[in-house]
């Protein structure tokens, strides 16, 4: 596939099915806890500064944001989970929105599941990974913020993450930093192999 990744734009934002684009363009969704770096990952691999809006304040992304890439592929930035300061009602709304998208969207080819490389995955991270495995949605596991960990400890952290998730070795695993741009090529290889 010849893909001009510079030709990328926010297409639309959605809260439910009726807003989703109606066509057959493949989609890759980004899921992970609030502040893990989902929007930064999208910006990083598209080499854009602020296409997907990022923030040091968690809970920035509230809607399903569909990004068009050269009319041939879409990224879907999913609001983060695990942000403590939301009401129970908000959390339920989030749960419905994300479940509806992940379980019924035929365009969905894979989910980039992001976890923070610095820490063992949270219960929410484990639940998300289990959910994706249960629904047999292909997973690309991306560990973010690797620039914050010295290289000498990378193996140890990778093992910690894989152990906690009971990681399926047939899934892709990518070490990523939006600061150093480490992992961009590997992330693209994984994404393109799914569409
Ligand atoms: N050092 C470092 N910081 C990062 C990296 N990725 C993201 N960040 C920072 O982490 C914060 C959150 O990043 P976002 O991309 O907005 O996170 P998000 O997952 O989209 O967050 P929500 O939209 O709230 O769910 C920002 O301050 C980013 O600059 C990374 O690879 N390395
Ligand atoms: Mg975001």
Automatic annotation (TrEMBL):
A GO term from the CC aspect: cytosol
Domain EngB-type G: 24-195
GO biological process entries: division septum assembly
Gene3D superfamilies linked to this entry: P-loop containing nucleotide triphosphate hydrolases (3.40.50.300)
SUPFAM superfamilies: P-loop containing nucleoside triphosphate hydrolases (SSF52540)
NCBIfam families: GTPase_YsxC, small_GTP
Name by which UniProt lists this protein: Probable GTP-binding protein EngB
Gene that encodes it: engB
